[in-house]
Specification:
alpha/beta; eight-stranded mixed β-sheet; 40% helix; Glycerophosphate_synth; Transferase; TagF_C; TagF_N
Length: 741
């Protein structure tokens, strides 16, 4: 039985919280913020940060955290070891970057650890777990920990503790104990380390209170599991059972855990037949080799399963599964009746088209729910015609918008026979929103999600806590659509991180910039002058583009400004270009009485919006993503945020716009008028705020984003051969209107 030699207290802090690993789906940010916000005198925080963003996130919190920067690709074991080597605490609590700590957990753990005698090697914690659907769900470990009581004990007296979830974060380890057994803990297999901690400990103590949050990532957002990783599960238990030699009680419990785990993985992991057969064979050998003396199988169906495993009866086990599935299928068919039968007959024409080969020269484009040629897909299609003219683009457009297409645009209308044909056979599908649920992701077709903005407001799964934003959304269906993406286009690292968090899946992020923003660097004086003439903006006049976003808590578009009064105050030399959000088609009646003034122009139906930005001397918006695009022009931006608190509370946001705005912030119409009527809209403070905003959010936009996307996706070029992103200081935006008139 393992023994512990420590009896005297060590110097230094009681507890070292060792945060380790990369910033997976941006969960590290919140974890570090919570730790930095509540520093404790007897607790230190060591951040073994993997990758640049993890390091930068940690360093922002200053002296509250000790940062140990590790290169990309550093494994969990190496990161833990590096953090532990830096730690000075008597106890080590390893917290993975994807996980969390409930409020008050470090204090609770430090206080419990401080009172433990030197004979205790491991403090066991209860935990909660979170998924993409729910947060802070109770674990099954609580009753086990409660029954173990408050006194320290030997594992052989309570072997049922081996049934605790194998999370290293729920084992707080005495530092000396960790160092003595470093070789066994030096593994990226966290469950092995968690079990080994229990088996090696001389004595353990329990804290039956949730002090750790296990965040379970969507399997679809993680790399596929290789066959050898499944086999490693069996090897793990074989090694662990080797540590229970001459410990019959612990051996019996761990053996039972092994068999249950192997059968669960065999049934649920979705292994290919060859891999599954080999896994079953190896599990059968382990079950026979490690079976305890006097072992008795459980009764009922579970006993039958175990007997089939021990006999290596792969075919028999599959037959048992098939029989169970057949019984469930009959029950389901009876309940669903005609609905089930009808589902099998739907979309026969589309299915027939799916049986034909993919056309490598066919690309389908769509934007804004089939509204027309616009946004990032339009910029990609234009560059595709230049660099890969052998690929034929077809646009999906509603019947009502088809007449507005540029002459010669090949298109299909949803619901038609050719629509189903091109969707089934296209080698490339490009959209700035998702294609319908029924579109099948063929293995040899490439889906490109371009998105249509940089996120300030919460998106995807992050909308779940906000009822106004989540109303009517089917998040499971959303994730099924996300799982079809091969590529996700991003304009900046903030966006990349938020998409990984809001849309977790296996797609590749194309950190190439937004193609629609290329025009802000390629347009010249002639283009700026021409669009102002089309809009009727006389020379010497200031054009202010007012582009508010929609509110989830409002049914229609109501200008939040008295536009007539604003125009009067700003004078005859200022023209307001007013663009309502595209969600409000047909709801622009508040503007109809203002259009005839000449100084208020309704440009809600004007496309493309990029031309409006080129024409405008300044932008006034609230929370619209247009601010991120317009910032590329390095022209003044003013934020009108009269309902910021309501918007932030009902929709949710990713950062505080009030402290990170691209220019002056007005909370009332009076403040906005004062800013626009004076030099505040373009003074030194405004320029400083805009410069910081551009550094953060115009990271990849340099005029060649569409080229990078086309070369990477359609021409198959390696990322290293693509045109590099030009540094911000070397970019030249389109000239300002006053420079060309």
């Amino acid at each position: 039985m393992p023994e512990t030699r420590e009896t005297a207290p060590d110097p230094g802090p009681v507890l070292s919280v060792v945060v380790h690993g990369p910033n997976v789906q941006d969960h590290l940010t919140g974890l570090l913020e919570s730790l930095a916000a509540r520093p404790l005198p007897d607790t230190e925080v060591i951040v073994a940060a993997v990758g640049d963003w993890a390091r930068e996130t940690a360093e922002r919190h200053g002296p509250a955290l000790q940062v140990l920067a590790l290169p990309d690709g550093t494994g969990d074991a190496a990161a833990r070891a590096a953090g532990a080597a830096r730690a000075g605490g008597r106890w080590l609590h390893f917290v993975h970057a994807k996980d969390g700590l409930p409020a008050g957990a470090p204090r609770l753990v430090a206080e419990r650890a401080a009172e433990l005698p030197g004979t205790v090697d491991v403090l066991l914690l209860d935990h909660v777990h979170s998924t993409w659907r729910a947060s802070a769900l109770p674990s099954r470990d609580g009753p086990l920990l409660a029954r173990a009581g408050g006194a320290d004990l030997a594992l052989d007296d309570q072997p049922r503790l081996l049934r605790l979830a194998p999370l290293l974060g729920t084992r707080v380890l005495r530092a000396g104990f960790w160092r003595r057994h470093g070789e066994l803990f030096a593994t990226d297999d966290e469950p092995f380390a968690a079990y080994a901690a229990l088996l090696l400990a001389g004595r353990v103590a329990c804290l039956p209170h949730p002090a750790y949050e296990d965040r379970r990532l969507r399997p679809e957002s993680l790399p596929p599991v290789a066959p050898e990783q499944h086999h490693a599960l069996i090897d793990r238990y074989e090694r662990l059972l080797g540590l229970t030699r001459d410990r019959p009680a612990a051996h019996a419990v761990l053996y039972d855990v092994m068999v249950r785990d192997c059968l669960r993985v065999f049934v649920r992991a979705g292994m290919p037949p060859t891999t599954a057969r080999e896994f079953f064979r190896r599990a059968s050998l382990a079950a026979l080799r490690r079976r305890p003396e006097d072992y008795r199988r459980p009764a009922g169906l579970e006993g039958i399963r175990r007997a089939l495993l021990e006999e290596d009866a792969y075919t028999g086990y599959r037959a048992l599964q098939a029989a169970n599935r057949a019984r469930r299928a009959v029950r389901t068919a009876v309940r669903s009746g005609r609905r089930q039968a009808g589902a099998r007959l739907r979309d026969l024409e589309y299915r027939r088209a799916l049986g034909r080969p993919v056309d490598p020269r066919l690309a389908v484009f769509s934007a804004y729910w089939d509204r027309g040629v616009a946004c990032n897909p339009a910029a990609i299609a234009a560059k595709l015609a230049e660099l890969a003219p052998h690929i034929h683009p077809v646009w999906v457009v509603t019947a009502g918008n088809a007449a507005l297409l540029p002459p010669g645009t090949d298109h299909v209308v949803p619901g038609t026979g050719r629509y189903r044909e091109v969707l089934a056979r296209a080698a490339y599908l490009v959209n700035n929103v998702n294609f319908p649920n029924g579109v099948v992701k063929r293995p040899d077709a490439v889906h490109v999600q371009t998105h249509h903005g940089t996120p300030l407001k919460r998106m995807g799964l992050d909308q779940m806590p906000y009822p106004a934003a989540a109303r009517g959304l089917d998040f499971r269906a959303l994730l099924e659509r996300v799982d079809k993406w091969d590529y996700s286009v991003s304009a900046n690292s903030h966006t990349t991180r938020m998409w990984q968090r809001a849309y977790p899946s296996r797609y590749v992020s194309l950190d190439h910039g937004y193609p629609r923003n290329d025009v802000y660097y390629t347009a010249g004086a002639g283009e700026v002058r021409a669009v102002r003439e089309r809009l009727g903006i006389p020379p010497g006049h200031r054009a202010v583009l007012y582009a508010p976003t929609h509110r989830d808590y409002e049914a229609g578009f109501t200008p939040r400004l008295d536009l007539a009064a604003l125009a009067d105050r700003l004078g005859e030399k200022t023209i307001l270009l007013v663009r309502a959000h595209y969600f409000y088609d047909g709801g622009l009646s508040p503007l109809t009485g203002l259009r005839r003034t000449g100084r208020i122009v309704d440009v809600s139906a004007y496309d493309p919006v990029e031309e409006l930005c080129l024409a405008a001397d300044a932008l006034v918006t609230d929370y619209s993503s247009i601010m991120f695009d317009y910032a590329n022009l390095d022209r003044p931006i003013v934020i009108h945020a009269d309902d910021w608190e309501t918007y932030r509370t009902t929709r949710g946001v990713y950062f505080d716009l009030m402290t990170g705005a691209p220019g002056p912030v007005a909370r009332t119409q009076e403040e906005l008028t004062e800013i626009l009527a004076t030099e505040a809209w373009r003074d030194g403070a405004a320029a400083t705020a805009r410069a910081a905003f551009r550094r953060r959010f115009c990271e990849y936009d340099d005029g060649r984003a569409a080229e990078r996307v086309v070369r990477r996706v359609f021409l198959g070029q390696d990322e290293a051969t693509l045109p590099p992103v030009l540094p911000l200081e070397r970019r030249t935006p389109a000239p300002r209107p006053e420079e060309v008139m």
